[in-house]
Design a protein that fits this description.
Pfam families: HRDC, HTH_40, PIF1. InterPro entries: AAA+_ATPase, DNA_helicase_pif1-like_DEAD, Helicase_HTH, HRDC-like_sf, HRDC_dom, HRDC_dom_sf, P-loop_NTPase, PIF1_helicase. The protein is of the alpha/beta class and about 800 residues long. Helices cover about 45% and strands about 10% of the residues. β13 and β14 form a beta hairpin. The chain is globular. The N terminus is likely disordered.
Length: about 800
């Protein structure tokens, strides 16, 4: 075992969090630097991480978000049988969860077991993984000897059949993991060894009669501190604290001053760091509720002072022992949401709301619960009615010295509550303390895990199977040749990718068994570089080109959705493999591998969306070939007939029938009648319209006609079309936009003004052909609608001026295109 010193413990914790994939429970007595460690990890880790906490105030203090908002969990009990309820996550939220490396949960002692299992269910679902927590590494920070989770009796009645305890360590998902426990032991808050020993005795429930008597010497029944002494009362019940503060404030004869918070956007009441309506008087005892972020660091969260003066410049506070008073003005707290930066593709925090108020609260008294994490020079402890495990320890450990502590009532032995479950867990924590050898093995296991992940083609095989199932289940709606092409792709994936990677993965344990880490094994690195060359070429030259031939149109909207959803997922998997094997050609290291994988996932755009519109894909020979002029002519005829008869295009002619005509080029009514879905009667009815189209677009002119088709236009071969063959000119603009062209580029290509192109796109938005989010960023839409509401402003010029040029005229037109 490692000899515990503060530096070794912190270094050990850093190594596990930064260089392994091991879940970590970081614990320690009050004042041992757990929160400091959290902030250090955020600053130095290369992993994609988020920070969550069980309460709003804890989330604000940790610089993160609440667990329930991040994972969209219900606030009541999460019973395992109904844990998979349908929760709708935004596309951006799903991207964030899928690319997450590290989840940090602060104040874990207050997190219920079912909540942790709820997190597990969400991560497994959206990361397509059956590993605990979807394979995300956990850093759980907290002290189980402090405040427990709040579980009402009626909630526990629902949870008890499923959990041994309500504490986080009873989570079924966590019990599936081999997490390590690291306990920080060096105490920064207290320096007096006598006081430290007493606190340890209370924390570990080992304090004897002599120790309790020593502690109770601080019971001073007649103690009345001077008004400027800076004592704060810590009580077990909120009502008691409120009554003390209200009475003390009322006793002051100085004028009352009321300060109203300014609350902008999203900042729920349960997250307020202080009172929204703050009543103060000169002479009031106050506590700072925020750290001073300036260079001077004049105050900190929990510092006590007395109001000396109030005017238009702010509130003047004098703190005991400070040579000068402080003039305090309003400060901001931020409510944040995790998003993915569109430029860097990194996880970033967006400010979604602010709370602006004086960083003060009345502080003659505060509840023990709200004092967690704070440090006081002087405190009066009223813990005789302690009702929850950890309350007495939290209260006592807030004080820096025993002399600065006064007991309002003696501490009875009965208030130092013991829970057998926690005693057993604490013993388990000691057993899970890792050694240096374990750390080395964990680093090696992490590197081996990522190399295995690199060579795993099972996800691609699964997604291909899903794609084949869509084709099998909808054979009547999709071209028959798809079955053949899918089979060919499956054979290629099996023979050239899975079989080769499987042979390497069988040899990997030999390399991992060596003393050196895989990253430092030059023989293995050479194998990996060669593998990078082979698999990158296979993906670039064979697998992805074959996959991109599998484009298929259908009149059945649901089939079309299912088909392209499955196709896009498979393409994304192969594109990510292409990226990581490309990086591997110069050598493998875990950090670069992770960064490359995440960037490829976030940058992915389906090939069909970045090249040409799907309607321009030819279905004549099944999938992916160059479109024929007959195919376009038939599409145009079908659209015109549908419009004329007020019918759907499918009612005029199914897509499969149209494709077969484009394949077979029937030259007579008899040949037309043989097309599936036509028959003799229908051939006689539509033949006079179809056969002339066939004769005007013979097979030998296919390539020539294609040069003036939409694909020819997208390639830049046609300078301008006033009216394209398939409908209105705005639709042609839409196709170019969907192909990745900017409005300015479209205007140049088509010989139109930029304003005309913008008008086309607005028309497409109004017709429901283009989502407004495709042309106006979400933050600008929010700004527009929050400023002007759902109704279009009377003057766009005035609107642009009012928004200080933050949006353009075009963006305003797009935003209100739907009326």
């Amino acid at each position: 075992m490692i000899t515990p010193t503060v530096n070794e413990r912190l270094e050990l914790a850093h190594n596990y969090v930064l260089h392994t994939h091991q879940n970590v429970f970081l614990t320690g007595k009050a004042g041992t630097g757990k929160t400091t460690f959290l902030h250090q990890v955020r600053q130095i880790s290369a992993k994609r991480l988020v920070v969550a906490a069980p309460t709003g105030v804890a989330a604000i203090n940790a610089g993160g978000v609440t667990i329930h908002s991040l994972f969209q969990l219900p606030f009541g009990p999460i019973v395992p049988e109904v844990m998979q309820e349908n929760r709708k996550f935004s596309r951006d939220k799903i991207k964030l969860l899928r690319t997450l490396d590290l989840l940090i949960i602060d104040e874990i002692s207050m997190v219920r077991a079912d909540v942790l299992d709820g997190i597990d269910a969400v991560l497994r679902r959206y990361r397509y993984s059956q590993e605990p927590f979807g394979g995300v590494q956990l850093l759980l920070i907290g002290d189980m000897q402090q405040l427990p989770p709040v579980i009402r009796d009626e909630d526990w009645a629902l949870l008890q059949p499923h959990y041994d305890t309500g504490y986080f360590f009873s989570s079924h998902a966590l019990q599936e993991t081999d997490y390590v426990s690291i306990e920080l032991t060096h105490i920064y808050r207290q320096a007096d060894q006598r006081f430290i020993d007493l606190l340890n005795g209370v924390r570990e429930k080992t304090i004897g009669p002599a120790g309790l008597a020593d502690l109770n010497e601080r019971y001073l029944p007649d103690f009345e501190p001077a008004d400027d002494a800076g004592y704060i009362t810590l009580s077990t019940h909120n009502q008691t604290a409120q009554q003390i503060n209200a009475q003390k404030l009322a006793d002051l004869t100085t004028p009352l001053h009321t300060f109203e918070a300014v609350i902008a956007d999203e900042f729920p009441e349960q997250m307020y760091p202080t009172e929204a309506t703050l009543d103060l008087k000169v002479g009031a005892q106050v506590m700072f509720v925020k750290n001073d972020t300036s260079r001077e660091k004049l105050y900190y969260n929990g510092k006590i002072g007395q109001v000396k003066h109030i005017d238009e410049d702010g509130v003047v506070v004098q703190c005991p022992g400070d040579p000068i008073s402080l003039t305090i003005g309003p400060v901001d707290w931020q409510n944040v949401r995790y998003t993915i930066d569109p430029e860097t593709r990194e996880i970033k925090t967006d400010i979604i709301g602010t709370f602006t108020q004086l960083p003060l609260r009345l502080a003659w008294a505060i509840t023990i619960h709200k004092s967690q994490g704070l440090t006081f020079e002087r405190a009066i402890i009223d813990a005789g009615r302690a009702f929850a495990h950890g309350q007495v320890y939290v209260a006592l450990s807030r004080c820096k010295t025993l002399d600065g502590l006064v007991l309002r009532t003696p501490i009875p032995a009965s208030s130092i509550k013991t829970e057998l479950n926690l005693e057993q867990f604490h013993a388990d924590v000691q057993e899970r303390t890792p050694s240096e050898e374990h750390l080395h093995d964990a680093k090696r296991a992490n590197q081996a895990l990522r190399i295995n992940e690199l060579f795993a083609f099972e996800p691609a095989a699964y997604l291909l199977g899903r794609l084949r199932k869509v084709a099998d289940d909808n054979a009547r709606s999709l071209p028959a040749i798809l079955q053949t092409k899918l089979a060919e792709l499956g054979t290629l994936l099996t023979d050239k990718a899975r079989a080769v990677s499987h042979r390497f993965r069988r040899q990997l344990p030999e390399y991992v068994a060596e003393t050196s880490l895989p990253e430092a094994n030059e023989v293995l690195q050479e194998r990996l570089r060669k593998a990078g060359d082979y698999f990158h070429a296979l993906l670039s030259d064979e697998l992805l080109p074959r996959l991109r031939q599998l484009f298929a149109e259908t009149d059945n909207k649901q089939v079309r959705i299912d088909w392209f959803e499955a196709l896009d997922e498979l393409e994304k998997e192969l594109v990510v493999k292409q990226a990581v094997f490309g990086q591997c050609r110069t050598g493998f290291d875990v950090v670069t591998y992770g960064q490359t994988r995440h960037r490829a996932e976030l940058d992915f755009v389906p090939d069909r969306k970045k090249t040409q519109p799907m309607s321009a894909r030819n279905q004549g020979d099944g999938a992916g070939d160059r479109p024929s002029s007959l195919y376009f002519a038939l599409m145009k005829w079908r659209t015109e007939m549908a419009n004329e008869h007020n019918a759907t295009t499918y009612q005029i002619m199914p897509q499969k029938t149209l494709v077969e005509i484009a394949e077979k080029y029937p030259n007579s009514l008899a040949e037309l009648a043989k097309i599936k879905g036509i028959g003799k009667a229908k051939a006689n009815r539509i033949g006079p319209m179809i056969l002339p189209l066939v004769r005007k677009n013979p097979p030998d002119e296919r390539s020539k006609a294609a040069s003036t088709s939409r694909i020819g236009l997208l390639a830049g071969n046609v300078p301008r079309l006033v009216k394209d063959d398939l409908g209105g000119t705005h639709e042609l603009t839409l196709d170019l936009f969907l192909a990745g062209k900017s409005p300015a580029a479209i205007a140049t290509m088509r010989g139109l003004t930029l304003q005309t192109v913008e008008a086309h796109l607005a028309k497409c938005i109004a017709a429901g052909q283009l989502p407004v989010e495709a042309v106006v960023p979400a933050d600008k839409l929010t700004l527009i609608y929050d400023t002007f509401g759902p109704d279009r402003p009377a003057s766009l010029t005035d609107a642009v001026t009012k928004l200080n040029g933050q949006v353009t005229y075009a963006e305003l037109r797009y935003a209100y295109a739907k009326g």
